[in-house]
Each structure stands twice: as C-alpha cells, then as structure tokens.
C-alpha cells in the first residue's frame, strides 16, 4: 500500500510500538510466575510497587523507543515527498496496534462509567476517582460501623490514596494488551491487586494491635453488608475484588516479617528508565544513519 509522508510515520510508529510491546510483554508474561514468587518475599508495599513497574514496563519501553529513536530519525532523514509503499508486515503491526489501543480505550471508558454508578448501588467503603478522589461510605455502614472500625476502614482507603492506586489502575487499563483477546498480564494484575490491599492494610494498622482488631472487624462487617456487585476497576474498595477475606484477616491479626530485606525498588526502576532514555538519545545521536536504515527495512 502506498502512503504519503505523515501516514507512513504513523504506520511506522504504531507498528514499531506493537512489536516492541509484544516482545517485551511476552517476556514479562513468561517470567511473571517467578516475579510474583519473588515479590511475595518482600514487604507488601514494595512487592506491589515491583509488580506495578513490571506490568507497565513493556508499554513504557515501546513508547520510549518510538519517541526517542523512531520519530527523530524519520523526521531527520525521510524527505517529505510522494507516496511510498509500506510493507505488509508494517501495515499488519500498525493495524494490530490500533486494535489493541482501541480496546484499551474502550475498557477505560467502561470503567469510568461503572465507577460513576458504583455509589448508587453499593453498600461498602471505597476510594472513588482518579485526579480528585473522594472517600465513599454507604449510609447503612456509616450508621452501623462502630467508630473505631470506621476509622480503620478510612485509614485503609487513605493508604490507597497515598499510594496512588487508582491512578495505577487507570494506567493498567490504558496500557494495551499484547494481542486482541489476550492481555498477557493477568497474573501480574491480579497479584498486584492482592498486594495493594495488603499494603493498605499494613499502613492502616501501622503495627498497632488495637487498630489491627478494628480493621479485621471492619473487613468482616463490610463483607457481610456489601451487595453482590462487581467492584469498579477505577475504585479502591475496602474488601477488594481479588482478595481472600480469610487470608487478609489472618494476616492482619498475625503479621509476619518479610523474608527479604527492603530493596530500593523506586531507585532501581528510575535508574533503569534513565538508562533507557540515555541509550536511546545516544544512539539517535551517534548512529542516526544506521537507525534510519533499520527503520526503512522495517517500513518496507
């Protein structure tokens, strides 16, 4: 198919993003069981941060390569001119990229609608919203929860707000699947959800035995009161969608120390991102002609 200058650039960028995301995401998907087992030996907050970073790494890598290498090289060396032929492989990659991105946008829009309707049908405790989150407690629970249990539940939701968990949920939704109909990240997302709840529990009780009792009691009371409704994706609820209630209560009442010492996860991934940015910028400066020839081969 012959395409003019700008559509060729769009086709190249989307196809390259799809290929990089698919390769990196497939590697992450294969390694997910090992990563999850290793994360289980860390503190819950660190483990959740690790799984979040790994989940978003393929999309971040693809976006960085397209932004730092593909676009600058193409704009520098590809002269605007008549239409040129684009190969079948590149076209297919571009089409698949557009499909998976459309799917991610659609599910994000659906999650926004479901979250907006949550307060109308729920009997629970939750943190709703992304950029201006608000705490939600149903009227029935506000009247029936003892003061100490309500305070424990709100501390739990405050911990979700401090960790930015709803923003992370939004990023998970916006990050595309590996292929249409196959996410490839289900194990990471489900375990992140469990660990995020554990981390919020830890921050809510802060090692205080009385607070532990209050939070455990609140979990049981709210679990009995909540209606059987699907938890909206863009909300952090007290019960959580992917958590075993008995396991959480036992963990709150009988805390165990982590089996691995704390590690600087934030520093590690910040350094890794800085390294990718530096390498990309360096390659674009030192080997611009070589990169452009590779892009030309990929395009045709």
What's the structural blueprint in terms of helices and strands?
Elements: E1 2-3, H1 5-39, H2 44-77, E2 84-85, H3 88-121, E3 125-128, E4 134-137, H4 139-144, H5 147-163, H6 165-174, H7 186-205, H8 209-225, E5 235-237, H9 245-253, H10 265-286, H11 288-299
Antiparallel strand pairs: 1-2, 3-4, 3-5
Task: Walk me through the structure.
By secondary structure, this protein is mostly helical. It has one domain (2-256, 264-299). It has eleven helices and five strands. A three-stranded antiparallel beta sheet has the order 4-3-5, with helices on both faces. Strands 1-2 form a two-stranded antiparallel ribbon. It is elongated. The mean pLDDT is 85.
Summarize the structure.
This protein has 300 residues and is mainly α.
Keywords summarizing the entry:
300 residues; two-stranded antiparallel sheet; 11 helices; 5 strands; elongated
Distance between the termini: 10 Å
Structural class: mainly alpha
How many alpha or pi helices? Answer: 11
Secondary structure tally: strands = 5
Unreliable segments of 5+ consecutive residues: none
The number of distinct structural domains comes to 1
Strand order of the largest sheet: 4-3-5
The biggest beta sheet is recorded as:
3 strands, antiparallel
């Amino acid at each position: 198919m012959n395409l003019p200058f700008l559509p060729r650039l769009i086709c190249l960028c989307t196809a390259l993003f799809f290929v990089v995301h698919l390769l990196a995401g497939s590697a992450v998907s294969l390694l997910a069981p090992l990563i999850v087992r290793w994360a289980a030996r860390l503190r819950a907050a660190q483990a959740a941060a690790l799984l979040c970073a790994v989940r978003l790494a393929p999309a971040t890598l693809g976006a960085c390569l397209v932004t730092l290498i593909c676009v600058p090289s193409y704009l520098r060396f590809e002269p605007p001119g008549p239409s040129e032929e684009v190969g079948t492989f590149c076209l297919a990659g571009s089409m698949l990229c557009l499909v998976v991105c459309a799917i991610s946008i659609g599910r994000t829009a659906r999650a926004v609608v479901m979250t907006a309707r949550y307060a109308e049908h729920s009997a629970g405790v939750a943190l709703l919203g992304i950029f201006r989150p608000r705490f939600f407690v149903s009227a029935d629970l506000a009247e029936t929860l003892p003061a100490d249990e309500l305070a424990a539940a709100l501390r739990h939701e405050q911990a979700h707000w401090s960790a930015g968990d709803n923003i992370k949920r939004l990023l998970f939704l916006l990050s595309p699947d590996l292929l249409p109909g196959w996410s490839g990240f289900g194990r990471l997302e489900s375990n992140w959800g469990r660990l995020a709840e554990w981390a919020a529990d830890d921050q809510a009780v802060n090692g205080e035995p009385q607070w532990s009792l209050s939070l455990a009691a609140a979990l049981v009371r709210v679990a009995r009161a909540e209606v059987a409704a699907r938890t909206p994706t863009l909300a952090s609820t007290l019960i959580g969608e992917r958590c075993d209630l008995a396991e959480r209560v036992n963990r709150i009442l009988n805390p165990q120390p982590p089996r691995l010492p704390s590690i600087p996860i934030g520093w590690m991934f910040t350094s890794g991102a800085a390294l990718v940015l530096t390498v990309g910028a360096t390659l674009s400066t030192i080997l611009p002609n070589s990169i452009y020839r590779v892009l030309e081969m990929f395009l045709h």
